Amino acid sequence: MPPDSHTVHSLQQLGALLGPVSEVSTRKEVPYIAAPYRAMIEASPFAILATSGPDGLDASPRGDAPGFVVVEDEKTLLLPERRGNNRADSLRNLIGDPRMALLFLIPGVGETLRVNGRARISVAPDLLARFVVRGQAPKCVLVIDVESAYYQCSRAVVRAQLWTAPAATGVPSAGQINALMTDGAIDAEAFDRVQPARIEATLY
């Protein structure tokens, strides 16, 4: 939609709309992984990785056992890159633009953690060896230089009832989505039948 008289187009307008930033919101942001933030990272089994590249933005899920993102020190995080679909949108973006962000979620906890920084892609053998699971090393490891970290209050999670809402209904299965997006080239029922075993066999 084209902008109109109701479009907010300046920082001044935005400030007037939202009001002042609270002192707590400012003080909770630090340029390192503080002790409470480390505890959140070590408890988190899921994070969303955001990157930027020449073809646009990308946000993709990352997950494993709690603590799969390692706090190497207060300025460094290590994120193993496991098997996926090989699109590698995030990694392609990081090649050209190392800026990235992580949003950590913790089941049952309303607060989330945001970490911004810059990442490089490492295939150092000793680093890969630290993240072997089921006999499989990751493809690479993101070495993240932390620039800022701060927790986000629970309002969004509470509004979404993320950890308390009943399971959603009416969501198409992976097979149904693939069948639709390939104009029937993929058989939905056959895909869904073997999908659980396929995922389990290729997790790492």
TrEMBL record:
Coiled coil: none
Domain Pyridoxamine 5'-phosphate oxidase N-terminal: 37-153
Superkingdom: Bacteria
One Pfam family it belongs to: PNPOx_N
Protein name: Pyridoxamine 5'-phosphate oxidase N-terminal domain-containing protein
Organism, scientific name: Niveibacterium umoris
